[in-house]
Write a structure and sequence with these properties.
The complex is a heterodimer of chains A (283) and B (264). With 283 residues, chain A is α/β, with parallel strands linked by helices. Chain A contains eleven helices and ten strands. Chain B has a domain of 161 residues. Classes of the chains: A alpha/beta (283), B mainly alpha (264).
């Protein structure tokens, strides 16, 4: 079971009369139980691609296989349980919380998916604990929270429904550096401990690189690259076009590789790893 | 969601209508309202319809967009039509349904009323599809300027209008995002009884409204922070320019007005 896009095309109909293809005959095959990152310049089709995964947007052409479900172009019916099995966290978390309290918001998904009250409460509690939301926060109205807390609540609200795949559109935007790292670590744990597939759209390669199993670069509605994050290093054309920045630790490593006779790396090193390597090389 | 909310949207394009001065479109709209009010028979309705279709073709926007703009109001149109059909007793009796009788006069009045409303919405859509909201507000401001001497707070009104028009698409987009967030978490209107549908739609309206209020507040702060003052003299980035095509456009409305008056 995995995620497969077969010749998927999509065009926004209402924004202007002549629109280019937002997704242009996409062919893509991804394994589940992985941490997948999607990058690309604004307007390259990342968010559009994500919204096809749970049927919010329906392809004009092509078929999408997600887990054991098949999403065909409209008017074919969406597979049952699609929204529950694929959870989507949108770019603007403050617009995803619409109940009076965070607790009620966490219960919204599970109750919609026909869980009993006790099951829903247990699911909401587990999700809240995982995201580090205490009872004080759960009793608050979404507008009383900080942006980091809102983001965590929005993710917990999606996790509460128990999705097998969790898709997040720019989850770290407007967060400070330590909250970014904390969030990415939590998401990575979802992948490692719960066996969930995590798909993240981001602009910051640095923050996802240590966790990412597979990276996808999108360009003008097409897939420009699929591979391991470090394989992207030499594709400066793609890096520039997608507005990405190579992690500073890797750049330093690359600069020191020849003078210190360091071996080639097959991943982006963390600052601590880099420090250890340099220390070993000069001692 | 977007498919349901077409009225009030601007659609990018390069047609003749898109290029006209917003003032001429607004003046044309006023003439058109006059023409639509004069319509009271099948023949005059037909004239109005032909004229509207010509304008629609000139916008180079597919007819399906207009149909989508009319769709949300279809129940209101149907209600008005049925009201006329069942409660007007002019003309010959055509049919008897239970305690109600349908008369030819009532049928004509009902269909004409429905037609008038449809034409009106279609034409309002022409204006909004081809004119950016702030330009409509500017045009209105320029029309209302003489009233300033009478003590009417024209600038305040124009600002209010331009901000409300400016936020139509934003609020739609926000409504769409909230809608999508709800749908992703199992919200569905399909297969629900009418009462539940109404309840669930309100669940969408509450966050949209509260978010609109918060947005209004931060906008007011942002404007104040950049020294916006009512009544202060300020220049405009986009100058309005009245051309010959604008005069011709407004004059063209005399044709349906004359024809409709003639055939009444």
């Amino acid at each position: 079971m995995g995620i497969t896009f077969e010749q998927v095309s999509y065009r926004y109909k209402e924004r202007a009369l002549k629109q280019h293809l937002a997704l242009d005959h996409i062919d893509l095959s991804l394994k589940t139980n992985q941490f997948i990152t999607i990058v690309g310049a604004p307007g390259s089709g990342k968010s559009t691609l994500l919204q096809h995964l749970n049927g919010l947007l329906r392809a004009d052409h092509g078929t999408i296989h997600v887990l054991d479900m098949v999403i065909s172009p409209s008017p074919a019916k969406l597979p049952k349980g699609l929204n529950q099995r694929i959870g989507l966290v949108f770019q603007y978390p403050e617009q995803q919380l619409f109940k009076e309290t965070i607790w009620e918001d966490l219960l919204y998904g599970p109750l919609n998916f026909d869980m009993s009250k006790t099951e829903a409460e247990l699911a909401a509690k587990t999700a809240a604990e995982f995201m580090g939301l205490d009872d004080l926060i759960l009793a608050k109205c979404p507008y009383q929270l900080s942006s980091g807390q809102i983001r965590k609540a929005a993710i917990a609200a999606v996790l509460a429904a128990g999705p097998e795949i969790i898709v997040l559109d720019e989850p770290t935007a407007s967060l400070d550096a330590s909250s970014r790292l904390e969030l990415m670590t939590l998401l990575h744990r979802q992948c490692q401990e719960q066996g969930r597939t995590v798909i993240v759209v981001t602009h910051a390669l640095e923050e996802v690189a240590p966790f990412t199993d597979q990276i996808i670069v999108m360009d003008e509605g097409t897939i420009a690259f699929v591979g391991k994050p470090h394989e992207l290093v030499n594709r400066t054309d793609l890096i520039d076009k997608a507005g990405l920045q190579i992690p500073a630790a890797y750049e330093l490593y690359a600069a020191l590789q020849k003078p210190l006779r360091l071996s080639k790396l097959d991943h982006y090193p963390s600052a601590a790893e880099l420090a250890a390597v340099i220390k070993a090389a000069i001692s | 969601m977007k498919h349901k909310l077409m009225l009030g949207r601007y659609i990018e394009g390069q047609s003749l209508l898109h290029r006209l001065d917003p003032r001429s479109k607004l003046a044309g709209m006023l003439c058109f309202i006059a023409a639509v009010f004069l319509i009271n028979s099948y023949v005059t309705l037909f004239i109005g319809l032909v004229f509207t279709l010509i304008i629609i073709v000139l916008t180079k926007i597919p007819l399906s967009y207009y149909i989508r703009a009319i769709k949300p109001l279809i129940f209101l149109i149907a209600f008005i039509t049925l009201f006329h059909i069942f409660f007007h007793t002019e003309g010959a009796r055509m049919l008897k349904v239970g305690v109600f009788s349908i008369y030819s006069g009532g049928l004509e009045k009902g269909l004409v009323a429905a037609g008038r409303m449809t034409l009106f919405i279609a034409f309002a859509s022409v204006l909004s599809f081809t004119t950016q909201p702030d330009r409509i507000a500017n045009a209105l401001g320029s029309f209302l300027r003489p009233l300033k001497r009478l003590g009417v707070p024209v600038e305040r009104l124009t600002l209010m209008l331009s901000l409300s028009l400016r936020f139509i698409p934003t609020i739609f987009e926000e409504a769409e995002r909230i809608w999508k967030a709800q749908v992703s978490r199992g919200f569905s209107l399909a297969d629900q009884p009418l009462k539940e549908k109404a309840k669930r739609t309100i669940a969408l309206l509450v966050p949209v409204t509260s978010s609109a209020f918060r947005r209004a507040e931060s906008l007011a702060d942002a404007m104040e922070a950049r020294s916006y003052r009512l009544g202060a003299s300020r220049s405009q980035y986009r100058q309005m320019l009245w051309k010959r095509s604008d005069t011709l456009f407004v004059l063209s409305f005399t044709l349906p007005i004359c024809l409709i008056t003639l055939f009444n």
